Task: structure prediction
Amino acid sequence: MEAVQASDPAAPSPDFSDLADDPDAAWNAPGATMRARQRLLRALITDIIANVDEAKREVVLTIHWRGGQHSQLRVRKPKTGEHGCRTSDEAIAVIKSMASRWSDADIAATLNRMGMPTGQGKTWTAHRVSSLRRVRGIHAYRSAEKDGEWLTMTEAAATVSVTHHRIRRLIADRIITAEQVVPGAPYQIRAADLQDDRVLAAIKRTGGPCRTGFENQLPMFPDT
Result:
């Protein structure tokens, strides 16, 4: 239990009898400054006692007013680490979903694409993702854990010797099955799926060089 002294009990009490009928008028008066309101409170309040109701997770404030009256105010007790500038639950869910397979830089880029700012309203960076993971105890991404089972689009393109754009097109055409841990996250491709006959046929069909001419074909613009 903690008592917060609101005013000096030895100091003479100002005469606020004229305010008894309409205290709101004094508080909301056009010329009332914050300092004046603070002085008004210190004059009206003897002390404030703060206590915690652990069962209800509430902070209980008992306000003792001059004249012997008192009132009680209950407010929710914040959780450990909770404050006004906190990361949204949606952003934390994205980080948890991606942390085991993606780097902090990939996660930051995904959060920015999805329009999810940090708790301070800033854009994400790899460092900010890393800091939040440490605070939240979210398991970190480690490149040494990659076993080749899942590939990014870039890795998949390198594996089958095609362009990044071609892999994206095959995903859009539903020839390659790809997953996203959340909408907007980078695609993940199972390495074994790249050896599927349908995928290999599609890559072979479009992966060769363009044919520049045919035998016995007449030129469009013959020499004159």
About this structure: Helices lie at 23-27, 34-44, 89-98, 104-113, 126-136, 153-160, 164-172, 197-207. Residues 110 and 185 are 5 Å apart (CA to CA).
